[in-house]
Amino acid sequence: QSAMLQLAVTEIEKEAAAKEVEKQNYLAEHCPPLSLPGSMQELQELCKKLHAKIESVDEERYDTEVKLQKTTKELEDLSQKLFDLRGKFKRPPLRRVRMSADAMLRALLGSKHKVCMDLRANLKQVKKEDTEKEKDLRDVGDWRKNIEEKSGMEGRKKMFEAGES
């Protein structure tokens, strides 16, 4: 590990030295040494030249900043699209909402569409007919009396006679 760290340190030092050399070469190429003239008119011309250079450098700087902003915006948009395509976006937590079926359909289909989910409204109403069983049940009355009548031998005799006829 220590050997790897030493190699990494030497590589970093080499890169820093190379950057410094590159910087010196660039400055020597683009920035000649300053020579101050003695007369006032020559100084004014030198100032005008320097102002013109400053303006051109500012324009370049502004253009590069705008390009940089545009490319970063494009990168963000593309990374967002990639993120959406992968489908690994965080889903918001869903809350339970108590809503009737009518309100849910109104929310889905809009308020102009009136839907009634009253399911009982469409059912037919059927009148109860008196059946024989119901008549028998009404005639029997209280079940305790019926049991007392059927208890003992007399009750069995009545049941037997009722079965024959």
From TrEMBL:
Organism: Orthonyx spaldingii
Family classification: Belongs to the troponin I family.
An example Gene Ontology biological process: skeletal muscle contraction
Coiled coil: 9-88
Record lineage: Eukaryota, Metazoa, Chordata, Craniata, Vertebrata
UniProt GO MF annotations: actin binding
GO CC terms: troponin complex
Full protein name: Troponin I, fast skeletal muscle
Keyword terms: Acetylation, Actin-binding, Coiled coil, Muscle protein
Oligomeric form and interacting partners: Binds to actin and tropomyosin.
PANTHER family named in the record: TROPONIN I, TROPONIN I, FAST SKELETAL MUSCLE
